[in-house]
Design the sequence.
């Protein structure tokens, strides 16, 4: 994003427009048009923005110099989720059939597609510098795919090399959103579902159980992890955003990512009534007293949550 030096937020309205806003003062920096994404169908980086269109079998692509899409790409079927590799060379999109599609952005060439889920692929992200692709579906399953194996399949045309290295099946209803917070081998993955739960997973652990679970009282639609692993933020169909504290804010500077903190009782903080507690080592925890819920943030379901620093 040329001439944009501060942290920014891309806000989508219900009128087919999106506005890039400064987080420092809230001012509008620029806008894009013909942008009506699905819930998991918006991606942006400093070079471009992509949108899986809600009412079309199409992906729109913008650069930050024009309001109108630079490309309007027809897709083989209706897409629901989208992401892009960190180098901007590849686009991945999940479809209603459960297939995941991989395109080369520079040429628009479809490189590969495969049956990632039994039902619709509702969420897709990358992590560890694009080493892994993580997908979630309406089948309530989360898969982790090695990107190197995926690229090998594009060259060979065979799918026999492509197997998920992690599969998590603890959710009881469809996955609605995924988020990742990097920290080497201790990278955390957050997932939310229509089953009203937020769950955390460690990519480095082969366990099929999550390391943290909390029920938030309404079907959840979106999630974001704090970059320092301090908290997870989940939006629900009730229009509220819940902050789930994983590490006490006072101990952030002294806590190493992924380390198991000494057990302690939750401490309630006067400002806003926030409660905080450490993330447990490898056992599942349901720590309701670590949750702070914003009241009346939106009048309808929260479609996206983003954490930044």
Sequence:
């Amino acid at each position: 994003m040329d001439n944009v030096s501060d942290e920014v937020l891309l806000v989508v309205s219900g009128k087919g427009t999106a506005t890039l806003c400064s987080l420092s003062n809230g001012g509008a920096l620029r806008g894009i048009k013909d942008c009506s994404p699905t819930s998991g169908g918006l991606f942006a980086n400093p070079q471009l923005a992509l949108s899986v269109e809600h009412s079309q079998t199409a992906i729109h692509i913008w650069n930050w110099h024009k309001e109108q899409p630079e490309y309007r790409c027809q897709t083989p079927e209706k897409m629901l989720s989208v992401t892009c590799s960190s180098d901007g060379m590849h686009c991945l999109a999940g479809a209603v059939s459960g297939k995941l599609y991989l395109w080369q952005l520079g040429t628009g060439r479809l490189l590969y597609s495969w049956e990632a889920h039994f039902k619709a692929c509702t969420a897709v992200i990358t992590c560890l510098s694009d080493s892994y692709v993580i997908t979630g579906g309406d089948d309530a399953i989360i898969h982790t795919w090695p990107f190197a194996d995926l690229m090998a399949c594009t060259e060979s045309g065979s799918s026999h090399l492509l197997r998920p290295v992690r599969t998590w099946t603890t959710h009881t209803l469809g996955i609605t959103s995924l988020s990742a917070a990097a920290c080497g081998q201790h990278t955390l993955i957050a997932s939310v579902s229509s089953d009203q739960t937020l769950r955390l997973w460690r990519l480095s652990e082969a366990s099929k159980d999550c390391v943290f679970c909390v029920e938030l009282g309404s079907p959840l639609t979106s999630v974001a992890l704090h970059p320092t692993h301090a908290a997870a933020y989940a939006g629900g169909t009730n229009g509220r955003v819940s902050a789930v504290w994983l590490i006490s804010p006072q101990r952030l500077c002294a806590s190493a990512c992924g380390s198991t903190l000494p057990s302690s009782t939750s401490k309630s903080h006067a400002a806003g009534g926030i409660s905080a507690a450490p993330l447990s080592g490898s056992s599942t925890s349901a720590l309701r007293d670590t949750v702070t819920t914003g009241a009346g943030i939106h009048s309808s379901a929260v479609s996206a949550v983003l954490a930044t620093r």
Q: What stands out?
A: The chain has a mean pLDDT of 79. Residues 194 and 219 are 4 Å apart (CA to CA). The helical segments are 147-156. The first strand starts at residue 8 and ends at 12.
